[in-house]
């Protein structure tokens, strides 16, 4: 198993503070392991949820790897001296990993059959299975057993999960503890981007830390209230974290 000594508790979560290349190497190593592991890409929304919900925070602290998925999070990490930390989003990792792991088997769980069909067309030949689960706040144990059975029969190395935050983060950590092998990754919006359902922000906005603004303006009814609630809270948490380390 890879060396995770670059993990540092920041904003209440054990973020990995290495480069994108190192994150990818760790996840590839997970994919070659006989153990089951979980990967969470935490953005500002996830940080705020974790700071409000101690059970969710404890769950994320038990994930195999927590990756910073937000430029503002890396700004805080850089200020704290973690200069190598880089933002790495689920959608970016998905595309990069597919280029590096053409001998691996990928399973997609989440979203709708239409979106999954789009993903199938995008990543032809690399997927070993697709499943659009029933809508539920929490899956029953019977449903979870069905999902694990599907994934194990497909002999999946990577299980990509798109159920929306914070449900998907809770799910991948929980399911990785129930399954025998495989890397469980909570990648959310990657399903919509690669399934052709939604457009992603231009790279310039992503690099400026404004991908959230693009998403809010393209989906105002769903995201405006969330961002107006969580962004000020995240700023407060970031300021508190910086002051705590200065004093």
List keywords for this structure.
247 residues, alpha/beta, Rossmann fold, 2 domains, 6-stranded parallel beta sheet, two-stranded antiparallel sheet, 52% helix
Entry summary:
The chain is of the alpha/beta class and 247 residues long. It has helices spanning 20-31, 44-52, 54-61, 71-79, 90-100, 113-122, 141-153, 167-178, 190-194, 203-207, 211-218, 220-246; strands at residues 7-10, 13-16, 36-42, 65-68, 106-110, 127-131, 158-162, 182-186.
Structure characterization notes:
There is one protein chain. This protein is α/β, with parallel strands linked by helices and 247 residues long. It has two domains: 188 residues, Rossmann fold (3-Layer(aba) Sandwich); 44 residues. The protein has twelve helices and eight strands. The strands form two sheets. It has a six-stranded parallel β-sheet, sandwiched between helices. A two-stranded antiparallel sheet has the order 1-2. Strand 1 and strand 2 form a beta hairpin. The model has no long low-confidence stretch (mean pLDDT 93).
